[in-house]
Amino acid sequence: MELTLVGIGTGKPDHLTLQAVEAIRAADLLLIPEKGEGKQELADLRRTIVAGCVEDDGVRVLSFAMPERDPAVPDYKTRVKLWHDAIAQAWLDALAPYPEARKIVLLVWGDPALFDSTLRVAERIRKACPLELKVVPGLTSLQVLAASHAIPLNRLAEPFLVTTGRHLREHGWPEGIDTLVVMLDGECSFTTLDPAGVSIWWGAYLGMEGEILDQGALSEAGPRIVEARAETRERRGWIMDIYLLRRETSSASAP
239, exposed or middle or buried, with CB in 10 Å at 0-12, 13-18, 19+? Predict the structure, then answer.
């Protein structure tokens, strides 16, 4: 069996690479995770992408229920590892009725290698059954955020750090870094920072219908983003967003 993880960018069909389109067309079976009624739009976007790539009925599209993390497990990493175990079992259960399928494809938001656990789940599948694992890279939300705001991710000759909202809340702004890209932040963790001298570039539903962008001084844009995020999440039932924070320094001479 061959399992291919295909990066699909941020949900816009135009973001697919030619390699991604070819992989989808070559599949015997396409796995579509279902995350419940509130997130049905995510599964529907995947189906729209598949429909735009496949010209006949030769590809079987198979949905499976995506397990949820158990909030009763107190340790974060343990909770996530158990969740990954459950996802791997859901994949195996979904594939069991189709032993003849040789080319399996799973569509992954963004890129499978960046803050996504699909590769870790796939390693669990490898232990249960022999398979060849392939990855087709996709546009990341970092790239789409920078393009949407028409900004570079880093200052001239300077690094930037990609981190999570939880890490930012627990550890604050890392020393020696003036540009942060924050992902997986469900709590607007930028509100825990001193906003003086900090600018933010934020985007939600990047590349999708209803894309929202905001940017400016954190002291001014931050409250707008908190309000917009809460309103649109309530209305749509889910949200995917990302933001870049940049701290002004006396030595900064170029964006």
Answer: middle
